Every structure is written in C-alpha cells, then in structure tokens.
Amino acid sequence: DQQVKQNSPSLSVQEGRISILNCDYTNSMFDYFLWYKKYPAEGPTFLISISSIKDKNEDGRFTVFLNKSAKHLSLHIVPSQPGDSAVYFCAASVGGNQFYFGTGTSLTVIP
Amino acid sequence: DTGVSQDPRHKITKRGQNVTFRCDPISEHNRLYWYRQTLGQGPEFLTYFQNEAQLEKSRLLSDRFSAERPKGSFSTLEIQRTEQGDSAMYLCASSLARASRDEQYFGPGTRLTVT
Fold first, then answer.
1. What is the bridge-based pairing of β-strands A10-14 and A19-25?
2. Mean pLDDT computed over every residue of chain B
C-alpha cells in the first residue's frame, strides 16, 4: 500500500519561473515530512522538512506547504534554476522512525 | 569526506549466492537506515538501528535478509540465497535523531544485479 503518493512523474518549468511539486499521503498519523532531491548515480539529498505542527517552512528558494486536512504536501521552488533539474521525492514518518517515500517527480528546468 | 559511504558500489552475483554490503554512517549519527530502491520507485524502508539496536524491520524484509550494526558504528546488510527479484539499489542513510528534526543523509548506494 502506497502511503505517500506523487502523482506527477515529471514536470517541466522555464528557468526563473516557479516549480510546484505535489505529494499526497493517506496516513493521518504522519507527523514529519521531508523533501529530497536526487541526481543520477547519487543517493537522495535532504532539501527541506516540516513538522505537522506547522503549515509552512521556508529555506531560501524552497518552501514546503502542509495541508493536513487535505493530507497534501507541496514544494515550491522559486525562481527555478537549471541546476534544480533532478528527481524529487517526498517522504513522511511517524515519530521519525520508519520513513515512507513517494515514487518521485522528475523536474526539468529549461534554460 | 565525512558523508555516508557504502561499499561496494556495484555487485553482480549469481542467483543463490550470498552477498554482504557495508555502510559507514556519518560518525556522530546514532540512527542508521537501510532502504531498497527499484527503477521508477522511491526508496523502500527495510530496517533501522538506533546505536546498535535494531528497532524496526519492514515486513518486506524476508528471512534471507539480515542486518547488523555491531558497535553502533558501521552496518552490514547480508542477503542469503539471492534471487533475481533482489536486484535493486540498496541505500543506507544515517541521522542524528533530535526532538524536532531527523534529516537523513544518504550514501551513494550499492547496486546489486542478480543474474
């Protein structure tokens, strides 16, 4: 059972515009959410996280929004840069123990 | 380099053979995780340790899989009697568990091919 879902396998955005990556989850017990970026032949790299007690967390060009009632998480990247082209995974956990990952969204930022 | 390292990076083995992978976490991290990733999927949780104690195992982890972290530092993942379905990327991650944050740092992975 896929508890974390990323329904868009790919996304293309023009450089300088906003990239919005979406993630849905089914387990209402999840209390910690993360986004990772992955380049080919490398392990995922942590980007940003958010606790369920917040609805927004910002770090530079990256902002994560959490809508608990909709069980929806999104990552906004603005402005998008060509170096942001990668696969993005969202992940969720209960108490920081077992982490559940989505299937990933491949972002392409077009120069 | 103070990141998570994994060895080997690639392993090709014949069906039925045993394989062992090693993960060296970031030195001060007390948690260590193993994941498996197949093409088009996200990392799939296998097991995790806090210090030397194995605290949780996925029900997906069959009895052919065993993991150890003997001194709370490096960890090994062994697969016995490998099957073709075991072919995947095996990722290790470590973290310093804190009250509000538990960012995992991933290694580059070990790609296993079972022929």
1. unpaired
2. 91
Check residue A71 and report its DSSP letter.
T
Strands A4-5 and A72-77: unpaired
pLDDT surpassing 70 at residue B101? no
Question: What are the percentages of helix, strand and coil residues in chain A, rounded to 5?
Answer: 5, 55, 40
Q: Report pLDDT for B1.
A: 54
**Measured between CB atoms, does B24 come within 8 Å of chain A?**
no
Q: Which residues pair with B114 in a beta bridge?
A: B13
How far A109 CA lies from chain B's nearest CA (Å)?
20
Helical (H) or strand (E) element with A44: none
Q: Give, for all 111 residues of chain A, the pLDDT tens digit.
A: 689 999 999 999 999 999 999 999 999 999 999 999 999 888 999 999 999 999 999 999 999 999 999 999 999 999 999 999 999 999 999 877 788 999 999 999 999
Q: In Å, how far is A97's CA from the nearest CA of chain B? A: 8
Q: Please say if the pLDDT value at position B16 is more than 90.
A: yes
What is the Cα Rg of chain B in Å?
Answer: 14
Q: B54-74 in b/e burial notation, b at 16+ Cβ within 10 A?
A: eeebbeebeeebebebeeeeb
Within 13 Å, how many C-alpha atoms sit on residue B92's CB side?
Answer: 30
DSSP 8-state code for residue B2: -
